[in-house]
Amino acid sequence: MATLAYSATAAAAAATTKLAHNRVISFPKSSFFSSPNKPKTIFTNLTPLKSSAKQIDLSAIEVDSPLSSTAAAAATKSLKSRLRNNETLYGIFLLSFSPTLAEISGLAGYDFAVVDMEHGPGGISDALQCLRALAATRTPAILRLPESSATWAKKALDLGPQGIMFPMIESQKSAKKAVSYCRFPPAGVRGSAHTVVRASGYGINEGYLSNYEEELLIMCQVESEDAVKKIEEIAAVDGVDCVQMGPLDLSASMGYLWDPGHKKVREMMRTAEKGVLKGGGGGGGGGGGAYLAGFAMPHDGPLELKSRGYHMVSGAVDVGLFRNAAVEDVRRFKMSLMEGSDDDDEREQTKDGDDKYWSE
What we know:
Blueprint: E1 3-4, H1 8-12, E2 15-18, E3 24-27, H2 69-75, H3 79-84, E4 89-94, H4 99-108, E5 112-116, H5 124-136, E6 141-144, H6 150-158, E7 163-166, H7 172-181, H8 208-215, E8 217-222, H9 225-229, H10 231-235, E9 242-245, H11 247-253, H12 263-277, E10 291-295, H13 302-307, E11 312-317, H14 318-339, H15 344-359
Parallel strand pairs: 1-3, 4-5, 4-11, 5-6, 6-7, 7-8, 8-9, 9-10, 10-11
Antiparallel strand pairs: 2-3
C-alpha cells in the first residue's frame, strides 16, 4: 500500500481516500473545513502591501522607453493630482483593443489613454489586456463604458483603471447615478469583490478601500443639446471630476451630423464650456466644479481647446492614426507608379527612403 503524505504530523490529521487496487492517497485537512469552534487562519504568511499614492506601484518595472525624465516623473502622479496642479493633459483613444498599439501609445508619451468600449469592438476581457500593456508603460488608463449602468461600471472598475467615463449623461440625476455606481455602500451601489479583483491588487493592497474614491477620476460625457442646457448642474455634482464634451454626438443632436464645425454647433460648444468653467473647474463637484475635457477636431485643435480652459485633451484615435498612415503609404506608392521613377536620382531617393523606413 502506497501512502502519499506531506509529513508524519500532517498524515496523522489527513483525510484518506481509498482508490482502486487498495491504493490510498492522503490529503491534509483544509482549514476551510475545520471545526467551527476553532479560529480559521488562512494565508498566514501573506503580508498585504501598504497603500501608496497609486494603487499599484510599477516603479520596479524596467521599460525601454523614449519618455523623458520629466514625463517619467509625471507618470508616477495620478491624473487627479496632475489636474489639481493645473496641468493640461494630452491623451489618445484606443478603439482597436490591440495591446500592442496600447503599449506603443504609452511609450510614445501620452498622458493618458482611453480604452473605448462604447465604440470599439472589445469588452471587459479585451480591455484588461490593454490595461496591462498600458500599466507596463506607466500610462494611466481610462475606461469608457458602452452605457451608463451599474453593471458595466462594476465590471470596469474591478479592472482597476485610473479613470472611468460615462457616456450620454443628460441631467444632474444621471450624473449622480454615475457617481453612485463608483461608490461602495452606503455612499453608492457598487458591488464589492475588493478582496480578489485587479483594482485592489487582487486583495494585496490593503489600503484600497481607504483610497479608491480619492484616486478614481470620474468623467461624465455631455453629448446632446438637452444635456448642454443642464451642464452647470451636471458639473456641480459631488464626485464628478470632469465633463467630457462630445462634439460629434452634439452636432448630430442638433441636426448637423455631417458638419460638427457648423457655426451653431460651435456656439453650443462655447455655451457648454462656459457652463463648466463657471463652476471653477476645481474637479469633483462640491462647489469646486468639474474640469473640462474634450476631443480635438480638424476645425478645433488641441491648442485651441487648451486656450479655452480644457485640462484634458484627446487628440488622436489609434485606428485613425493607422488609417491615415496606411492611406498615405498607398497613395505615395501609386503616385510614384504614375510619375515613373526610372532615372538614377529618383532611384536613389527611393533607396534612401527604404533605408529610412527600416531604420525607423
